[in-house]
């Protein structure tokens, strides 16, 4: 089980490196449409009849996200201004989440409903797990409580996957339909979004491996009593 967790960490690091290198490469390819990330985002929202979502710039690299609470598409400074295949992919993907929100996409609704609960759980989960491990020779109950809480974070990781893949599907379909990208630029955008999605896949698998690790500790402690 240790091996799986270490392997997941190594693979996660490699995918993050690959993702950054892909985005750096595709950021150098200017769009023939000459639209910036901001313009692409605003156009996609407009085409979907979404008028209550703002497109704003946010600090950092690969910090792009959609915030359903205040209805903002947050684009990193580079994506906001750039006119590249990478910027087009990211801007359209984040607007894909806005479209999901506007159309009440079930997976996004379920994921959003989990956020307040997970915010509370995360404050105590680690301490409960640690306490459960120390108390295992006496009782396994605290550890199983911690495992139940951790299983919620694992579930959240897996629920995130269809949300991310669907946002990318919507983004790629729209930039093609709207003529934002050429065939070559579409291939670059698709490749960039695929590597971004892989970070979520690895995170979900790592969370599952960690969950199974805690379960094995609990089961091992039970067998020794």
TrEMBL record:
Report the superkingdom from the record. Answer: Bacteria
> Does the record's keyword annotation contain Membrane?
yes
Range of residues in the leader sequence = none
**Pfam family, any one:** Zn_peptidase_2
> Which residues span the membrane?
117-136, 143-163, 192-215
The entry's keywords: Membrane, Transmembrane, Transmembrane helix
**Record keywords: Coiled coil included?**
no
By its UniProt entry, which InterPro entries does this protein fall under?
Zn_peptidase_2
| Designated name of the protein | Zinc metallopeptidase
